[in-house]
């Protein structure tokens, strides 16, 4: 969206332009700042500029306008006195022309008060003579106050039906926050929510009316009005639950869409569903972008991590918008990258969530050990975690855990008032089924999902706890030493969780030919998302040089150093009746990955014994499957 505020010197272009820029959150530019030196010199000497002077400057501005439009828009203050000048500036189809007009006397008074400006008041007459009254745009009397003029401009925009650049369907937690994020970055957005009589009525229009401070936001209660407001090619972001609702919503939209329109599914859809949708919609000429979005409500509002995949050409069109709303990494680069074809964006988000599950579970196990093994109060446990935060273990999930441990309600810790039944929406389970499908070990992350399932049956747990007289045992060991072991155990569990998730992505990427870029994936996860951490920052660099976490030299050093701590804490915790599903599974996974001579030879022998499933001999260079008649060989062995 481009606004050009025109008018002669002293009409208040900068004041109105700056105010518009503040209200729309679009950047402000003053055309005078783009004059070449020779023009500035002429004007300072009181010599009026000729068309010969102005045309290259206007042509340069016209190119800039195209760049700004691609980047989401801008407000430009430019005298644009003649129609021919304005025609040069009209380098894109839609421009909001705001023409400021006032009496000569007022203009002269204003110019006299100006300091540090190279335009002497004597040039006013020449400007007024040159001014050609445009027959379009909004003409504003400069006698109005700037605030009044801004209001008139926004009313005008709504009545002239300025098209929105993006449409968002689903005004739940994420849809609302993303909509405000877009408009705050100067991108006009139309929002829509389904109508459920008596239950969900006027959700989108109420949301827009309750956010009057964002003039680029428009709410619609009818799907056709909403769609009519979005400029072509239409870019529509779905922020609704995964599954059937996505297919139903797409079916409702299809009759209104044209070839080249773009649909983005920003929810947590299963990537195999997204694979199919990309194919089906491509056949219909609609570009489909399955996009992982992470960061929760706050991330969506202030800067999420975005993982789009699917139609790459459509992604390129959306990149300037995504770049504006995404979180920024430590180098200031937006946390968004084109992940890969088909449902790759949703696949990567699914793995993100399974790492999220495991990270949450490991923290929960750690806090349990701190509180009931080491007998620390929630505040003291929080103090320990704060120390870890500042000594190399920074992570968003650890930060919020500290806040949770410090939160009281009427003298009671809120945490202790929360029922211990963890819910889940599906991404964890889908990760497990994917790992099983591709035969990739996923134990620590699998256990995080199982732990939530175990937690669900509170009544059984309560009964069985009584039957078994279960209680946590307190640790008798030295607290300082235990805290050291526990910190290292936690640090290693984190590494294992990430190794597991990235390993799955590496194997699936190979199998599906997706060519995922792991350094980029880690980079877009360094900010905005739930699993952002100092470790993720290390991984963004690590994957530039190492094929995997487990083979990286620096990581190997840490893994070797902290392995005894994890083994010690898991052993101690289990002996004292603490369930530690993710920590212990993580350790087992690690040991399984680094064991050369595993016990799997016995499994093969058993399979062959009872089912003639065959096995491969170590001493056969050709590795051919063989079967043994175990009983007859055993009987023969006896006689030897
Ligand atoms: N919350 C989070 O932290 C994150 C969520 N996500 C994902 O984003 C998506 C949206 O999540 P969130 O905003 O939290 O969910 P909410 O439950 O807050 O909102 C869901 C929205 O979808 C609408 N909706 C529900 N069913 C349908 C349907 N059948 N057809 C059309 N619209 C429907 C709801 O409308 P109504 O008000 O009428 O019910 C509501 O506007 C989900 O896929 C979620 O997994 C992704 C990242 C983080
Ligand atoms: O996608 C998210 C964050 O990135 C969701 O907030 C998170 O996955 C919640 O999932 P669940 O309800 O299964 O715990």
UniProtKB/TrEMBL annotation:
Its EC number is 1.1.1.44. The keyword NADP applies. Pfam families: 6PGD (PF00393), NAD_binding_2 (PF03446), SKI (PF01202). GO terms for molecular function: ATP binding; gluconokinase activity; NADP binding; phosphogluconate dehydrogenase (decarboxylating) activity. It is an enzyme of class 1 (oxidoreductase). The keyword Oxidoreductase applies. It catalyses: D-gluconate + ATP = 6-phospho-D-gluconate + ADP + H(+); 6-phospho-D-gluconate + NADP(+) = D-ribulose 5-phosphate + CO2 + NADPH. Residues 345-631 form the 6-phosphogluconate dehydrogenase C-terminal domain. This is 6-phosphogluconate dehydrogenase, decarboxylating. It comes from Cecembia lonarensis (strain CCUG 58316 / KCTC 22772 / LW9).
């Amino acid at each position: 969206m481009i606004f050009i505020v025109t008018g002669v010197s002293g009409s208040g272009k900068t004041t109105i332009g700056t105010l518009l820029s503040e209200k729309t959150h679009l950047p402000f530019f003053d055309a005078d700042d783009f004059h070449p030196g020779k023009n500035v010199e002429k004007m300072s000497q009181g010599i009026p500029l000729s068309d010969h002077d102005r045309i290259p400057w206007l042509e340069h501005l016209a190119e800039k306008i195209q760049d700004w439009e691609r980047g989401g828009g801008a407000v430009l203050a430019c005298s644009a006195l003649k129609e021919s000048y304005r025609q040069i500036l009209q380098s894109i189809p839609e421009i909001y022309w705001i023409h400021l007009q006032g009496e000569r006397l007022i203009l002269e008074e204003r110019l006299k008060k100006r300091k540090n400006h190279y335009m002497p008041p004597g040039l006013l007459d020449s400007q007024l003579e040159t001014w050609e009254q445009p027959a379009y745009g909004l003409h504003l009397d400069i006698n109005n106050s700037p605030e009044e003029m801004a209001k008139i401009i926004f009313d005008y925009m709504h009545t002239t039906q300025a098209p929105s650049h993006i449409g968002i369907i689903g005004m739940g937690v994420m849809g609302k926050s993303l909509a405000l994020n877009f408009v705050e970055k100067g991108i006009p957005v139309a929002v829509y929510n389904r109508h459920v009589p008596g239950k969900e009525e006027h959700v989108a229009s109420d949301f827009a009316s309750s956010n009057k401070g964002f003039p680029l936001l428009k709410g619609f209660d009818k799907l056709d009005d909403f769609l009519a407001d979005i400029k072509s090619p239409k870019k529509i972001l779905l922020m609704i639950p995964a599954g059937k609702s996505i297919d139903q919503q797409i079916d409702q939209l299809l009759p209104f869409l044209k070839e080249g329109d773009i649909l983005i599914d920003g929810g947590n859809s299963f990537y195999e569903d997204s694979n199919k949708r990309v194919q089906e919609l491509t056949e219909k000429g609609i570009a489909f972008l399955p996009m992982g979005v992470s960061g929760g409500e706050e991330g969506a509002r202030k800067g999420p991590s975005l993982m789009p995949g699917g139609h790459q050409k459509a992604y390129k069109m959306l990149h300037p918008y995504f770049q504006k709303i995404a979180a920024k990494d430590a180098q200031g680069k937006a946390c968004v990258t084109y992940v890969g074809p088909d449902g790759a964006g949703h696949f990567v988000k699914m793995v993100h969530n399974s790492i999220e599950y495991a990270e949450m579970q490991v923290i929960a196990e750690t806090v349990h050990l701190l509180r009931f093994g080491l007998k620390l109060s929630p505040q003291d446990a929080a103090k320990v975690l704060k120390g870890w935060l500042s000594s190399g273990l920074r992570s968003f999930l650890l930060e919020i855990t500290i806040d949770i441990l410090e939160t009281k309600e009427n003298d009671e810790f809120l945490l202790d008032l929360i029922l211990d039944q963890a819910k889940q929406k599906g991404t964890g389970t889908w990760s497990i089924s994917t790992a099983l499908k591709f035969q990739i070990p996923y134990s620590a992350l699998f256990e995080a999902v199982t732990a939530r399932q175990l937690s669900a049956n509170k009544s059984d747990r309560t009964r069985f706890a009584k039957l078994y007289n279960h209680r946590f045992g307190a640790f008798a060991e030295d607290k300082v030493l235990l805290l050291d072991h526990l910190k290292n155990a936690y640090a290693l569990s984190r590494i294992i969780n990430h190794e597991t998730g990235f390993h799955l992505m590496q194997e699936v990427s190979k199998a599906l030919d997706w060519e995922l870029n792991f350094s980029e994936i880690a980079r877009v996860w360094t900010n905005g998302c739930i699993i952002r951490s100092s470790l993720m920052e290390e991984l963004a660099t690590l994957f530039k040089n190492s094929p995997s976490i487990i083979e990286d030299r620096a990581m190997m050093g840490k893994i070797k150093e902290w392995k005894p701590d994890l083994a010690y804490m898991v052993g101690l915790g289990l002996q004292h009746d603490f369930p530690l599903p993710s920590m212990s599974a993580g350790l087992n996974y690690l040991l399984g990955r680094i064991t050369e001579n595993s016990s799997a030879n016995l499994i093969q022998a058993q399979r062959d014994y009872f089912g003639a499933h065959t096995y491969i001999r170590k001493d056969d260079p050709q590795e051919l499957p063989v079967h043994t008649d175990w009983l007859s060989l055993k009987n023969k062995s006896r006689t030897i």
